[in-house]
Model the fold of this input.
Amino acid sequence: DQQVKQNSPSLSVQEGRISILNCDYTNSMFDYFLWYKKYPAEGPTFLISISSIKDKNEDGRFTVFLNKSAKHLSLHIVPSQPGDSAVYFCAASAWDAGKSTFGDGTTLTVKP
Amino acid sequence: NAGVTQTPKFQVLKTGQSMTLQCAQDMNHNSMYWYRQDPGMGLRLIYYSASEGTTDKGEVPNGYNVSRLNKREFSLRLESAAPSQTSVYFCASSEALGRTGRQPQHFGDGTRLSIL
Done:
């Protein structure tokens, strides 16, 4: 049973527009969520995180929204740039679990 | 500033051969992890070490063993490689996610392993 799901394997947007990447989770014990970005032939790099005590966290062009009642989070990138083209992974962890559970990723393509 | 270093970057094995993947971090992190990533899939946790001297199984531990050699190094061993273990393997480190708060993981660039 996959506890973290990214239901869209791919997303294509035009440069300058908004990119919205979605993530759903099933484990109600998850209370901390992270987004990672991965370029080909490289390891994932941390992008932004959010604690369950918040419903929004913003860092420059990147904003993560958390809807706990729906067990849903989303990553907004505004404006999107061609350099944002990568695979984005959503991850979740429970307090004191010592580890994260990852989704399968969404490949974002930003067209010039 | 090297971060997380994995060796080797590429390896081809024959079925039944053994191999150890090496990982070292220079960030003084307590926790270290081994993941595998198969095409179209996310990162699946093989083993992790919350602190020096401890190791725990993740989602997909079968066919693997690990050693937390010291605080810096965490190795992954395939005792008898099988074609199903063909994958990209990532090592990561972080401050402990649990009691000490939440810190993101820092990843190496992966080891691409093919088993024929």
